[in-house]
Amino acid sequence: MYRNDGFRELDRQECLRLLVTTVVGRVVHTRQALPAVLPVNYRVGSDGAVLLRTAAASELARAIDGAVVAFEADEVDAATRSGWSVVVTGSASVMSDPAERGHLVADWPPSWVPSPREVFIRIEPELVTGRELVGGRSLYGLDSF
Length: 145
What we know:
Oligomer: single chain
Strand order of the largest sheet: 2-3-4-7-6-5
Low-confidence stretches: none
Number of strands: 8
Helix content: 10-25%
Largest sheet: 6 strands, antiparallel, barrel
Number of helices: 3
Shape: globular
Mean pLDDT: 87
Distance between the termini: 23 Å
């Protein structure tokens, strides 16, 4: 972040606290050497990992298993010109432990796009960054309203 860009940098704990307040984010990965972004519903594990549920045969599962990806979630209030954005960057992998999978299946609401064979994907929180804008005020001393 730039020191005077009008946003407040969030620490890791603030970022993880905000991530649990929403259910939809975006996975950024590489498709044919170009950036690709897909919206997903998600959860945050107790260790801060981002957990996704998708069809085992999906393009997403094939594209990100074993790859470094970015995950972004945010919340914006256009009326007050405030909001936040959090990015988690790390290695993604299909979760293969049957006990772990069983626990997630029991605890997870039904998939938004059900599939006969689903997998869970874990994104390790290797780098967690975020920023917040409150009330449209910038550090430049100008009111943006």
